[in-house]
């Protein structure tokens, strides 16, 4: 029972973007994933990577408005980490007798979805890296930090907001090109 | 419309900032213009990817602040599904930290909203003493009007309650709160008329007072036909009462609902007898006609919850009465002659021993 209360609490707090709750969750279930991976030919660093990915998957899932907790957070994290690790093993051709099991209902969709998001994230990260400054900063300020055009104008020293707008437009066009170029590279 | 304006519009579309009309127009254009549609979709995808990237970066930064120690404990090794929960304090404290912060928030929030630490009590104990001043005063004014001015109207009684004879030689029991602060106490019923009494003993804690009919009155000692029950009454036992919530005697019946009183007071019963102000001090007797309690009060906002002091408490009070406060010993009856009578006849007998207690004070 106590664990279910803990789960509900964690979810409510994460929805409110409570960083502490996320960090506590992060600390709580690490040993489980660590042993899962380290007892299946993985290293500590790999365990950390996989676990981080599972936590992010959970976090993004919780943020979706239609999210309902159908199993314990622990079960979710375990299942996702397990699938991620299986995939990595498959890529490394080190597959060693870990079976594919349906650990909770809907894990297939979950993994496809997660895979898609991971791909998008990597593509965007690469595209932004290649975009370079000041374009990257302008784009991040405008879309992620929700700064107004006037703030951007002041920060980057443009003479008026129209100039800043124009610059943002150009940067976004370049970003689009980079992003879809990467996207096509993968799909082709 | 140049590309820059278009870009601006795409942003609004992607972020859901377009108003109804603009949104409809935008959608329409998307349907009609394939290249416009492709541009718009591309834009939305990039913005969504950007947002995803931004959110993940925030989460990753949050997680990067935490360094995960290498777990070593063998107990944490997993077999197939989940590790055995480690119940050490180290593992529980994060849970407690989150719980405590939520608890603190809700306490502060509640305090903020109610602005008070006090919980307001709505149900409370009500003593059933009847305040007759209002009635009496209007009455006395009528009397004063119709009577000659030479005779002053008698001072009105302030409070009224009920009392009953407990011994044949003139001792009357009532509730302490009825006669509290009295200058003089009179008892009255249709058999004995109006008799002056004096308070010989009061136990405020148990809400019991013993009065003695003054020897100056023409009250003659006799033997009472009922006893004071020395054992506690049983739950569900039928009980009856007589009292003076009005100027006339009123009969009430019910049963013992609980063997404790208001707030678990072990010295009282809860009874399901209808009572009203003025019933205080009235006798509660059982089907044999023996006294089991003294009506004392009720709980407001609870229907059918009246309270009666137990007869065992009355016996204790009588035993503890200092001897020198008595001019003649208080003799309890040792025999019950009502036992086999039908209820109507029992009540008829009991009526003789129940009095309205009139309390006067000049404060």
Short description:
The complex is a heterodimer of chains A (188) and B (363). Chain A contains 9 helices and no strands. Chain A has 188 residues and is an all-alpha fold.
Keyphrases for this structure?
heterodimer; A: 188 residues; mainly alpha; Arc Repressor Mutant, subunit A; 2 domains; 76% helix; B: 363 residues; alpha+beta; six-stranded antiparallel barrel; elongated
Can you put this structure into words, describing what you see?
By secondary structure, chain A is mainly α. The longest helix of chain A is centred in the last third of the chain and has 27 residues. Helices cover 76% and strands 0% of the residues of chain A. Chain A folds into 2 domains: 104 residues, Rna Polymerase Sigma Factor, Chain: A (Orthogonal Bundle); 77 residues, Arc Repressor Mutant, subunit A, CATH 1.10.10. The N and C termini of chain A lie far apart (50 Å). Chain B starts with a helix and ends with a strand. With 363 residues, chain B is an alpha+beta fold. In chain B, helix 2 packs across helix 3. Chain B folds into 2 domains: 62 residues; 231 residues, Thrombin, subunit H (Beta Barrel), CATH 2.40.10.120. In chain B, the strands form 2 sheets. In chain B, strands 8-9-10-13-12-11 form a 6-stranded antiparallel β-barrel. In chain B, strands 3-4-7-6-5-14 form a 6-stranded antiparallel barrel. Chain B has 8 helices and 14 strands. Chains A and B meet through helix 1, helix 2, helix 3, helix 4 and helix 5 of A and helix 1, helix 3 and helix 4 of B.
Shape of chain A: globular
N→C terminal distance of chain B: 94 Å
Number of helices of chain B: 8
Percent of residues of chain B in helical segments?
25-40%
Major pleated sheet of chain B: 6 strands, antiparallel, barrel
**CATH architectural type of the largest domain in chain A:** Orthogonal Bundle
Largest interface: A-B, 54 and 43 residues
């Amino acid at each position: 029972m106590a664990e279910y209360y803990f789960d509900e609490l964690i979810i409510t707090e994460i929805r409110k973007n409570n960083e502490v709750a996320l960090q506590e969750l992060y600390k709580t279930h690490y040993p489980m994933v660590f042993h899962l991976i380290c007892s299946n030919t993985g290293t500590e660093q790999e365990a950390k990577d996989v676990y981080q990915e599972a936590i992010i998957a959970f976090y993004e899932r919780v943020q979706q408005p239609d999210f309902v907790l159908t199993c314990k957070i622990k079960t979710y994290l375990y299942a996702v980490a397990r699938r991620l690790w299986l995939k990595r093993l498959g890529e490394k051709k080190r597959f060693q007798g870990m079976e594919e099991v349906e650990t909770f209902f809907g894990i297939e969709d979950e993994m496809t979805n997660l895979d898609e998001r991971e791909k998008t994230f990597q593509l965007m990260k690469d595209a932004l890296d290649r975009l370079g400054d000041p374009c990257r900063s302008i784009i991040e300020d405008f879309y992620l930090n929700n700064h107004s055009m006037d703030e951007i104008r002041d920060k980057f020293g443009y003479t008026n907001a129209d100039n800043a707008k124009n610059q943002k437009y150009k940067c976004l066009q370049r970003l689009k090109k980079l992003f879809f170029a990467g996207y096509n590279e993968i799909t082709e | 419309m140049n590309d820059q304006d278009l870009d601006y519009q795409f942003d609004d579309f992607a972020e859901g900032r377009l108003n109804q009309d603009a949104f409809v127009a935008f959608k329409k254009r998307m349907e009609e213009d394939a290249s416009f549609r492709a541009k718009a979709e591309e834009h939305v995808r990039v913005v969504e990817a950007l947002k995803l990237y931004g959110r993940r970066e925030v989460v990753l930064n949050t997680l990067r602040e935490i360094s995960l120690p290498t777990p070593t404990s063998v107990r944490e090794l997993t077999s197939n599904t989940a590790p055995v929960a480690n119940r050490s304090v180290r593992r529980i404290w994060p849970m407690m930290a989150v719980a405590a912060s939520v608890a603190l928030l809700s306490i502060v929030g509640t305090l903020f909203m109610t602005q008070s630490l006090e919980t307001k009590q709505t149900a409370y104990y009500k003593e059933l003493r009847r305040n007759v001043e209002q009635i009496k005063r209007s009455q006395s004014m009528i009397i004063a009007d119709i009577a000659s001015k030479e005779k002053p109207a008698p001072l009105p009684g302030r409070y009224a309650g009920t009392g009953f004879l407990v011994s044949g030689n003139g001792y009357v029991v009532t509730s302490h709160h009825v006669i509290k602060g009295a200058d003089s106490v009179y008892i009255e019923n249709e058999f004995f008329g109006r008799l002056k009494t004096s308070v010989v003993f009061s136990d405020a804690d148990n809400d019991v007072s013993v009065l003695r009919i003054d020897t100056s009155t023409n009250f003659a000692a006799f033997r009472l036909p009922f006893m004071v029950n020395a054992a506690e009454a049983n739950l569900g036992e039928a009980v009856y009462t007589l009292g003076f919530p009005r100027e006339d005697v009123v009969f009430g019946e019910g049963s013992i609902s609980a063997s404790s009183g208001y707030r678990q007071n072990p010295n009282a019963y809860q009874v399901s007898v209808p009572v009203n102000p003025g019933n205080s001090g009235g006798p509660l007797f059982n089907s044999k006609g023996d006294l089991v309690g003294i009506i004392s009060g009720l709980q407001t906002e609870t229907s059918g919850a009246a309270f009666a002091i137990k007869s065992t408490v009355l016996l204790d009070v009588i035993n503890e009465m200092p001897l020198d406060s008595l001019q003649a010993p208080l003799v309890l009856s040792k025999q019950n002659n009502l036992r086999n009578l039908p209820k109507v006849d029992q009540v008829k007998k009991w009526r003789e021993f129940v009095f309205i207690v009139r309390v006067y004070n000049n404060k």
